[in-house]
């Protein structure tokens, strides 16, 4: 095995922290870095190897922090640069590595570069950092292309000139508050090299690359096929000018050189929602990013045939590059697994969902490669689907005129202790920034800590056992493909059996770990998983 094969990130378990919702250390109702620092022993106690911290940079929060005004600082609501340095030191002392978010497909509209660009004339160097274009049609009143925004509506917004007359348009793949950077501008590329070095010099162990597939736009900004411009469906797009164009790979090669020049073993993980595993494999070629999120797995239905083929396709497509797979059930952008897996025929059954989510966790942790856990999934939290409309903050809600409620339901502040909101999330007078359900008293860290059958203790035990087999390469399916059961081995060190069928199935003997406490010996019930760890 080469040193590269042994690299920590090839099999790491990484815990995603969404800092605004993790823990409030200063009593203002929003999570912050002090809250994270205070709870680092909890994260280390889960048995993960690293954390990924969603954006902590100064931001007007038009898109939950993914609208950055300064890539080299910390938002005052979260703390200071000194707090970030303390967090890195404390995490490292606990054996945890730290990945930060790199959000450079776009900036905030409040970023000094964009303010300068707005104040500057068309064609000026300040505007060349972004995509400013004249409109089409009479008086330039139509957007320059037919491109659409991920959050609904056109991807272009018209500016107003200093004299009050309508001006050029600018491009924003996401919200209008998130103007896209033009990566063909050398000044943009050079500055972001400096951002990478800034955080590497402070000891970060890697970067999660936001919106990786959006970063390069073809010269001339051609229109997309109008038939494709009805809805934001990048999982179906190929040869689309807004998404997954070949130019993105030049950017990653450039970053890889910066990272490889730095001592240590830092990792990158791409957020690249693309058409299929073959397209995804292009992001992790040896001179590009190290790993990529596996959205095909995350979005797969609870179906043995589907999941088996996603696993096989993922591993086969990555084989040529040698990059490890990654597996995750959710993130700060996704419906929580308890809710997603509990949805049948338009109705959500949280009991079914929690049972499947427990089995899905054992499946995920058994697969070869890295795994991600989104904060709160280890408590079995469900999506909060009844947030009052006035509380909703996700731009998706506004941009779709309420047709989509957005992602706030998975970002509700975590319950730590006690029987009523704020469940120990904050000890200040301010309410948590999103209201917590009245029903979470059995789902706090405190409550689950003392319950041997809790989701929390299942995660802890599974992540502990995983250390014994995680560097076993690949997997081998046991038996013929089945439309009911997933059954595979990782060498002699693990056998994982998951029953997705309607009736119990026989097992070879008493397992080391069940996804359900009290499952009867001998047979594996529907929607449960069992591990045999050697
Ligand atoms: C990524 C982030 C998401 C954000 C978007 C725009 O998809 O995960 O939260 O809204 O990029 O930055």
Distinct ligands = alpha-D-glucopyranose
Major sheet: arrangement of strands: 9-8-7-3-2-1-13-10
Any low-confidence stretches, pLDDT <50, length ≥5?
none
| Cα-based radius of gyration, to the nearest Å | 23 Å
The main pleated sheet reads as: 8 strands, parallel
- Count up the helices: 14
Strand content: 5-15%
- Global morphology: globular
Which oligomerization state do the chains in this entry correspond to? single chain
What structural class do the secondary elements suggest? alpha/beta
N→C terminal distance: 21 Å
Helix content: 25-40%
Number of strands: 20
Mean pLDDT: 96
Folded structure, characterized:
Helices cover 25% and strands 14% of the residues. The chain is built from 14 helices and 20 strands. The strands form five sheets. It has an eight-stranded parallel β-sheet. It has a five-stranded antiparallel β-sheet with strand order 14-15-16-20-18, with helices on one face. A three-stranded antiparallel β-sheet has the order 4-6-5, with no helix packed on it. Strand 8, helix 7 (277-281) and strand 9 form a beta-alpha-beta unit. The two termini are 21 Å apart. The model has no long low-confidence stretch (mean pLDDT 96). It binds alpha-D-glucopyranose (GLC). Residues 63-64, 66, 103, 174, 210-211, 271, 332-333 line the site of alpha-D-glucopyranose (GLC). Alpha-D-glucopyranose binds at residues 63-64, 66, 103, 174, 210-211, 271, 332-333.
């Amino acid at each position: 095995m080469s040193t590269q094969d042994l690299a920590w990130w090839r099999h790491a378990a990484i815990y995603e922290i969404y800092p605004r919702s993790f823990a409030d250390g200063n009593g203002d109702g929003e999570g912050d870095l002090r809250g994270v620092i205070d709870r680092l022993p909890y994260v280390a106690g889960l048995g993960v190897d690293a954390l990924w911290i969603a954006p902590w940079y100064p931001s007007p929060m038009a898109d939950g922090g993914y609208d950055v005004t300064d890539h080299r600082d910390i938002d005052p609501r979260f703390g200071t640069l000194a707090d970030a340095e303390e967090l890195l030191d404390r995490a490292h002392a606990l054996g945890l590595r730290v990945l930060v978010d790199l959000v450079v497909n776009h900036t905030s509209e409040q970023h000094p570069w964009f303010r300068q660009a707005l104040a500057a004339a068309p064609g000026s160097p300040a505007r060349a950092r972004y995509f400013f274009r004249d409109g089409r049609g009479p008086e330039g009143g139509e957007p320059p292309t037919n491109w659409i925004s991920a959050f609904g509506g056109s991807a272009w917004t018209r500016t107003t000139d200093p004299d009050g007359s309508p001006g050029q348009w600018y491009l924003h793949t996401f919200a209008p508050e998130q103007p896209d950077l033009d990566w063909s501008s050398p000044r943009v590329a050079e500055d972001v090299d400096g951002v990478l070095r800034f955080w590497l010099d402070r000891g970060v162990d890697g970067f999660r690359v936001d919106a990786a597939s959006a970063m390069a736009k073809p010269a001339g900004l051609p229109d997309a096929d109008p038939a494709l411009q009805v809805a934001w469906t990048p999982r179906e797009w190929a040869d689309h000018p807004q998404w997954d164009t070949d130019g993105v790979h030049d950017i990653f090669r450039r970053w890889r050189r910066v990272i490889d020049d730095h001592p240590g073993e830092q990792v990158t993980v791409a957020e690249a929602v693309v058409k299929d595993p073959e397209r995804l494999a292009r992001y992790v070629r040896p001179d590009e990013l190290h790993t990529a999120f596996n959205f095909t797995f995350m979005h797969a239905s609870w179906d043995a045939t589907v999941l088996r083929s996603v696993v096989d396709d993922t591993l086969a497509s990555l084989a040529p590059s040698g990059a490890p797979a990654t597996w995750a059930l959710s993130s700060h952008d996704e419906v929580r697994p308890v809710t997603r897996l509990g949805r049948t025929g338009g109705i959500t059954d949280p009991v079914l969902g929690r049972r499947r989510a427990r089995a899905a966790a054992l499946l995920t942790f058994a697969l070869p490669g890295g795994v991600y856990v989104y904060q709160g999934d280890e408590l079995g939290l469900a999506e909060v689907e009844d947030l009052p409309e006035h509380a909703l903050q996700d731009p998706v809600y506004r941009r779709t005129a309420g047709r989509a409620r957005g992602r706030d339901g998975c970002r509700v502040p975590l319950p730590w202790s006690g029987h009523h909101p704020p469940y120990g999330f904050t000890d200040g007078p301010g309410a948590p920034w999103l209201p917590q359900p009245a029903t979470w008293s059995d789902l706090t860290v405190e409550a689950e800590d003392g319950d041997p059958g809790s989701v929390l203790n299942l995660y802890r035990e599974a992540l502990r056992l995983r250390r014994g087999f995680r560097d076993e390469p690949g997997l081998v399916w046991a038996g013929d493909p089945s439309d009911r059961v997933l059954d595979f081995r990782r060498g002699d060190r693990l056998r994982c059996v998951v029953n997705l069928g309607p009736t119990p199935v026989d097992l070879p003997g008493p397992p080391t770990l069940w996804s359900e406490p009290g499952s009867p010996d001998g047979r594996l019930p529907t929607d449960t998983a069992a591990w045999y760890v050697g």
